[in-house]
Every structure is written in C-alpha cells, then in structure tokens.
C-alpha cells in the first residue's frame, strides 16, 4: 500500500475552513486526554483556562500583555518564513533588543521621552537586525543552513546576556542579583490608559502588524519576498536580486523580534534580567504558523496563544495540572495546522 | 595547572570520550535520517525525551539496559510521528522538526511534573559504572584514558561501526543512501522511498534518544530540564562537519568533545580568572558555527536532502 498526494483544482470552502478548524479541535482533544492523565476533569480544566485568560479585567490585561512580545516575534518569524528564511533565532534577536534598551535607557542618554523612546526603539531594532544578518550572510554567501546557526546563536547570545548582567550592565544597587539598573522614567513606555496595566508596546505591536502587512502586500519588496519564498530559482530567473531580498528580509525580521525585547524591558519589566523571555522567540514560530504567516493573523494567533499560556498558569494553580499542558497544545496545534493546510490543497490517494 | 599538563593527563582523555558519547549516538541518528533525505530537527526534543524516558524507567525499577531500551522506543515513537508528517505528507522538514522538538520537550516536562509532582530535586538512580576492559585497562595511561569507560560509551563506538557497515556494505544501506540521492531511481527499482525514509527516521530517532539517555544513565544519575542544552543542534552541525560520513562524524564528535573538555579545564587555569566563564561556555556553540562555515564549500550534501518525494510526480 502506498499513498500519494493529488492536487485539488478548486478546494471548496468546507475544506479550506473545515480542516484548520479540525486541527484546532484536535489540539483540544489532545489537551483533554493529557489533562485526564494528570487527574484533571477536561471540562473544568478548559473552563479554568478560559476563566484565567478572560475571566476578569486583570486576566484580560494579562493576556494582552503576554500577547505583546508574541506579536513581535510572530511577525518576525512570519516575515522570514514567507521568504523561506528559516529564522529560529528570534530569541537571540529579542535579547539583542532588550540589551540595547537597557544600555541606552538606564541614563546613558538623558533625553526627553518623545526623543528617547523612538531612539531606543530604533537602536534596539538595529541590534536585532544585525544579530540575524550574520546567519543570513552565511546563508547567502556560503550556503550555511540558517536553522542551525540561528539556533546556536540563541545559546551564544543568552550566555552573552548572562555575562553582561554579571559584568558591565550589572546594577550596583542590585544586591548581587544579575539584573541591570532600572530604566529612567523617560525611557519607559507609558500606559495606554492611565490606571490600566497595559503599555504602549501592545499598540506598537498592532502598528507593526499593519506595517508588515502593507510591506508584504503593497510594496515591491513584499512581492520580491514572496517570489523568493515560492521558488528561488524562478525568482532569480525573473531578475529579482535574491541575495539582497534575503538580507533585507533578515533585517526586517531581526528588527521585529528585537522590538519584543524593547517592549518587555521598556514596557513591562523596567530592567533587563536573564529571564525576560520564557521562550517568546520559539513560541513566535507557533504564532506565525497558526496565522498562516499572515501579518494581521499574527495578532489573532498571538492573542490565542497568550490566552492559553495565561489561562494555563491559573488553571495549573487551581487544578494541579502542570502548565506544560499549554506548551503541548501549542506544539500539537502547530503540527496539526501545517498538516491541515496541506490537506486543503491536496487529496490523499491510495494506489 | 599548565596547558601541557591538561593534555598529558589520562583523566582529560577519559573525559573526552565521556563528553563525546551522547554526541556520537545522536550524530549517528541524525546522519541516518539525512542520508535517507530527511533533515530531523526534532533531535533536540527527542534527546530530552530519551534522557527522561530512560531515567524514569530505571527509577521505576527497570535495569539500566531496560532504561536504554525504553529511551530507544520513546525516540522511535517520536520518530514515527516525525516521519509520517515529513515523508508521506512531505511537510516542511524545518517546521515539522521544530514542532517535534517543542512537542517532545513539553511532553517530557509535563510527564515529569505528573509523575513527580512534589519533588524539589529529582531523585537519583544507580547509573552505569565504569567498566574496566580486562587487560587493556591495565595499560598505563591508555588504560585509564580509553578503557575505563561505561558500557554505553563502548556501545557508541560499536554503533558507529555498525552504521558505517550497514550504509556502505549492505543492500539496505545502498537503498538508504539512494533514497537521499536519487529517490526516483529507488522507486524505479520497485522499492518504496516512503518506507525507506520512514524507517531511517524512526531508527535514527531511536539513536538520538539513546544519546539523550546517556546523559541521565551514564554521564549523570538524574534528570534536569536544561540538561540537553543544545547538544542536538550541535549534532546537526557535526553531521555537516563529518560530510555525512560516519567515520568523519565520529572524528568530529571526538574533536568537539576534546575542545569541550579542554575549555572546562581552562576555566581552572589563571586564564579562567581573567576571562568570564560565559566565554568558555560559548565556545562549543561558536565552534559548531565555525565547523559549518569551514565545511560549507566542501561538503557533499545528499542531493535529495529536504526534497519530498511524491510518487506520480515527475
């Protein structure tokens, strides 16, 4: 028995919408089974997740705050994957942005807020862009697989951050803790509405999503990125400067991921620590895939993923089911979703 | 300690073999997958799962080799999932691999918390003890350096020889290599490219998991969340460095381990007082990137690596 895939000429709406929905449903079935193994009642577990994510004003704000870095890393991955630049290093680029924010925001520049914040944000983007530029150059010049190099950079950069926090960036008043000094008030992202714990990083994320959408759909660069992603040889044959397009993609992607670090340090935490990201860079891959690499979809996917994480945290405290349930569900969602998308375009035939 | 003293101490060379062992298993696993045409980026997660599965099985009462078997089966199960998604369905091997690493890692951590909900530090097991090879271990210097390892380390070298023999001396190996070079030719012979590739991914993933289990059953005697710590990604670099050949990949793993053992000892020299310890810890990853760069021009990549094969397409 062998199977083969046969393209479907014009897939119907039922297929195009139904299969991704089935993938999400499958994710919840997996989550339910695992919750039962841990001794939880699946209905109350999902109820607690929902309540933990949206059940109160505090919960909703927490979900929005958690979604913010994921919007940036999700966009970073979506942009790169669109051009088949496999950036798995958003984690390192995030920390590059965070380091730059801590370097410039702790008093090195004593500027007013309206000048300082854009400056720090741009410098953070530049830092992240440069971190991804190295693997991108190795890819286009030497053919070194960027998956491995970007992954290895994550480890290198986190060690570098550890060194900075125990050395040059260490807070002298920090009682020996490896953390940076606090940002000056002018370098902090203000809250969108006074009294609500939601900072301008979230709004910046929405702006970034729209900007990326415009770049992808309305500019020549966007068209070229798609062409390179679809078929690099055909793109080269059509006269598209493939190397330049890949390098530009890397700069945009690295810059976007760095904004996650900027937003976390300047918006949420107010100082740099080694643990500002519990894997936002890796989760960005799940976000981007769930969004089908669509920049506006990234916002929705980030909210969905953040809701599951925030909800699972409070569920775990109440029901005693480990919070890693959220990670399993998201990894399953990623795999089931890519499978579902394939099956919207191909039919399985047995010979 | 003098730099020269490091290289003439038998314990240094013994450490090289110990550090190389998990890399040897996992690199052979990755090499099998890639020779058949499938990049297996699930390696990092599969090593985490193997490290945990082997350890928890022994903790639950199985003998050490039973733990190795459980780890291997766990890896093969994950390999089956990876291979179904990446071979017959031909999904992006990058996305499937990263997804498998996330899935295997989170499943492992979840199971750990379910099985051991209350512990603050993981329990220890009775790990593999060094096995002196009669006669050989009595040789001065060499005996202590090379022939006083645990059984799993010796097994690693047997696996390299076995993989090399199967790949280059058997019809099965020929079929695996052909599946990674010109799958259409394999299909023309009436063989199933899908079957060969899936089998390679399943067996390869089993070896990766044993590499992970070496950490919990031989190198240490317990399981920690961060213990694999990028070793899987390093093994992917080692396969490239070894030009997809078992012998060269073994050499790469040993060279790499020598460097790693060296940097650990370098931290205890006067140099370690001046240079921040993070610089030493970075070296394995930097070295892996350098290896990829150096080999990039020379390596002969399997031609059909990462190219899905759909029968009926021409």
In short:
The complex is a heterodimer of chains A (351) and B (314). With 351 residues, chain A is mainly α.
Write down the oligomeric state.
heterodimer
Which structural class fits the helix and strand makeup of chain B? mainly alpha
DSSP strand tally of chain B: 2
* General shape of chain B: globular
Task: Tell me about this structure.
- The complex is a heterodimer of chains A (351) and B (314).
- Chain A has 351 residues and is mainly α.
- Chain A has a domain at 72-294.
- Helix content of chain A is 72%, strand content 3%.
- Chain A is built from 13 helices and two strands, in the order βαααααααααααααβ.
- Chain A has helices at 13-37, 42-54, 57-82, 90-105, 113-142, 146-166, 200-218, 220-230, 232-237, 242-269, 280-290, 295-319, 324-345, and strands spanning 3-7, 346-350.
- Chain B is mainly alpha-helical and 314 residues long.
- Helices cover 70% and strands 2% of the residues of chain B.
- Chain B has a two-stranded antiparallel ribbon.
- In chain B, helix 3 (43-59) packs across helix 10 and helix 11 (231-241) packs across helix 12.
- Chain B starts with a helix and ends in a 19-residue tail after the last helix.
- The mean pLDDT of chain B is 91.
- Chains A and B meet through strand 1, helix 6, helix 11 and helix 13 of A and helix 5, helix 11 and helix 14 of B.
């Amino acid at each position: 028995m062998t199977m083969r895939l046969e393209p479907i000429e014009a897939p119907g709406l039922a297929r195009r919408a139904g299969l991704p929905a089935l993938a999400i449903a499958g994710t919840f079935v997996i989550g339910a089974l695992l919750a039962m193994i841990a001794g939880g009642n699946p209905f109350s577990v999902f109820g607690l997740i929902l309540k933990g994510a949206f059940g109160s004003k505090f919960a909703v704000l927490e979900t929005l705050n958690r979604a913010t870095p994921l919007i940036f890393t999700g966009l970073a991955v979506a942009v790169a994957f669109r051009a088949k630049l496999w950036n798995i290093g958003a984690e390192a680029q995030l920390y590059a942005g965070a380091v730059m924010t801590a370097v410039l925001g702790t008093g090195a520049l004593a500027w007013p807020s309206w000048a300082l914040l854009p400056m720090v944000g741009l410098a953070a983007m530049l830092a992240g862009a440069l971190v991804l530029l190295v693997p991108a150059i190795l890819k286009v010049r030497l053919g070194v697989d960027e998956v491995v190099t970007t992954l290895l950079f994550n480890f290198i950069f986190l060690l570098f951050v550890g060194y900075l926090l125990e050395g040059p960036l260490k807070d002298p008043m920090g009682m020996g803790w490896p953390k940076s000094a606090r940002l000056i008030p002018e370098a902090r992202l203000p809250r969108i509405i006074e009294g609500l714990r939601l900072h301008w990083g979230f709004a910046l994320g929405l702006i970034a999503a729209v900007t990326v959408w415009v770049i992808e759909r309305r500019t020549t660069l966007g068209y070229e990125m798609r062409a390179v992603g679809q078929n690099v040889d055909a793109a080269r044959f059509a006269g598209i400067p493939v190397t330049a397009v890949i390098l530009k993609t890397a700069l945009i992607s690295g810059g976007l991921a760095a904004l996650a670090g900027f937003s976390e340090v300047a918006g949420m935490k107010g100082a740099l620590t080694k643990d500002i990201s519990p894997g936002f860079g890796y989760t960005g891959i799940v976000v981007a895939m769930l969004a089908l690499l669509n920049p506006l979809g990234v916002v929705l996917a980030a909210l969905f993923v953040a809701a599951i994480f925030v909800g699972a945290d409070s569920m775990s405290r109440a029901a005693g089911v480990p919070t890693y349930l959220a990670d399993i569900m998201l990894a399953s969602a990623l795999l089931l979703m890519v499978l579902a998308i394939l099956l919207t375009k191909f039919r399985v035939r047995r010979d | 300690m003098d730099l020269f003293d490091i290289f003439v101490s038998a314990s240094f060379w013994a450490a090289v073999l110990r550090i190389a062992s998990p890399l040897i298993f996992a690199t052979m696993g990755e090499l099998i997958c890639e020779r058949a045409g499938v990049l297996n980026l699930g390696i990092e997660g599969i090593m985490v799962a193997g490290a945990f599965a082997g350890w928890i099985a022994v903790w639950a009462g199985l003998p050490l080799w039973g733990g190795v078997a459980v780890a291997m089966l766990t890896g093969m199960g994950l390999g089956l999932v990876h291979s179904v998604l990446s071979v017959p369905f031909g999904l992006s091997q990058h996305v499937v691999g990263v997804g498998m690493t996330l899935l295997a890692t989170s499943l492992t951590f979840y199971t750990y918390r379910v099985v051991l909900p209350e512990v603050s530090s993981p329990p220890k097991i009775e790990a593999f003890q060094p096995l002196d090879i009669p006669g050989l271990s009595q040789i001065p210097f060499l005996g202590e350096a090379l022939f006083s390892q645990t059984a799993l380390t010796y097994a690693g070298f047997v696996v390299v020889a076995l993989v090399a023999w199967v790949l280059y001396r058997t019809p099965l190996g020929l079929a695996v290599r052909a599946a990674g070079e010109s799958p259409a030719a394999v299909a023309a012979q009436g063989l199933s490219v899908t079957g060969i590739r899936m089998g390679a991914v399943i067996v390869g993933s089993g070896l990766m998991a044993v590499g992970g289990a070496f950490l919990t059953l031989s190198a240490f005697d317990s399981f920690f969340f961060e213990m694999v710590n990028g070793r899987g990604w390093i093994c992917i670099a080692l396969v490239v460095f070894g030009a997809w050949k078992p012998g060269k990949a073994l050499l790469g793993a040993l060279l790499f381990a020598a460097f790693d053992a060296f940097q650990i000892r370098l931290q205890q020299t006067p140099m370690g007082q001046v240079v921040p310890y993070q610089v030493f810890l970075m070296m394995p990853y930097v070295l892996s990137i350098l290896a990829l760069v150096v080999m990039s021009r020379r390596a002969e990549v399997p031609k059909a690596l990462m190219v899905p094969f759909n029968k009926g397409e021409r």
